[in-house]
Amino acid sequence: MTTTEPLQVIQADGGVNGYDPQMPESELLHCYRAMLQVRAFDAICLKLQRAGRIGFSIPNEGIEATQVGAASALRKSDWIFPSYRDFGMALYHGVAPLEMMHNMFGNARDGAKGRQMPVHFSFVEPIRFVSISSPIGTHIPQAVGVAHAARLRGEDTVVLASFGDGGTSSLGFHSGLNFAGVWRSPVVFLCQNNGWAISCPTEEQTASDGFAIKGEAYGIPGVVVDGNDLLAVRKVTLAAVERARAGGGPTLIEAKTFRMGGHSTSDDPKRYVPAEQFEHWKKRDPIPRFEKFLQAAGLLDAAKAVAMNAEVTEEIAVAARAAEQVGPPALETIFSDVYAALPAHIRKQGEQAFDLAARRGEARSGDGTFPL
Ligand SMILES: Cc1ncc(C[n+]2csc(CCOP(=O)(O)OP(=O)(O)O)c2C)c(N)n1
Ligand SMILES: [Mg+2]
Prior knowledge:
single chain, 372 residues, alpha/beta, six-stranded parallel sheet, 12 helices, 8 strands, globular, binds thiamine diphosphate, binds magnesium ion
């Protein structure tokens, strides 16, 4: 029921042993571009954070193929319950980097009005990308609930719930998988096993033989895949999505990968990750690996790769500059989106807050009126 050897498609020389991904050239290049976008977004956010221009960011280097490969198996009508290391799924589905940068700066155009941490994105269009939740694993039963609701309504929607190896120790993982198994919910669980939960290594996380096997206790088949092989991740995710859509129930995918950066910009992984692990995984970088495949298939050459990289980096840099120009959300937005009709005592508190901000010279354009 559970596979143990990670499925691979792309070989060291870029060959695929006759495998046909059944993706048009434009789609393969779109996947490549989305991975470049993740890496550029990461690199620029790291610089912004180090320069004190944003507060925080989450590195994704090394896991781009897992995010993009899995996202490519979904329809726009499906739902994503992501982990905080999954924004490549949003980029793949066409969320504009500028929308994401508004969140990184917590500015007035941020969809969450600056109330979320950076990287805690949520989007309704072009795909339902549910707000990342910081408490690990809490989104797993929520994803199952949405999948169950879709089934009750007779929709053919599929839900992807993504989490890390550390997420499998949460209560949400066990209750979520249990009910998904009982209800045969149309949900795909994606465990990104990157070997670490901040500084906790896999061997201290679980005594079981990997993570895919954990599905068996809940009657859910498990599949292990090479998470740095975009075509392999897409292949297993597509099979799981199609099974779920056809009423076949959930699947637990374990994607073996590695984060080449810190847990967050507040972390220094060199203090706990052995240097050999970085060297081992550097040779397995998912982007050059996919480049080799594209080159072998005659879809990419060095000049085109350089040009795409430059174009994507410029796109993200332009987005960062534009988002930084947007001011912070107006003070009154802390009173919005909660009440249909603002209670008198809240209105009074607001007016006092606006008055105080004005007297201190802290009021900005827009502060001091209720939009409600
Ligand atoms: C319930 C809960 N416990 C602890 C934390 C602190 N914390 C944040 S990220 C993290 C590690 C999660 O590791 P993993 O699930 O493997 O994901 P990765 O960061 O490796 O992608 C921890 C322990 C938290 N956010 N929520
Ligand atoms: Mg992890």
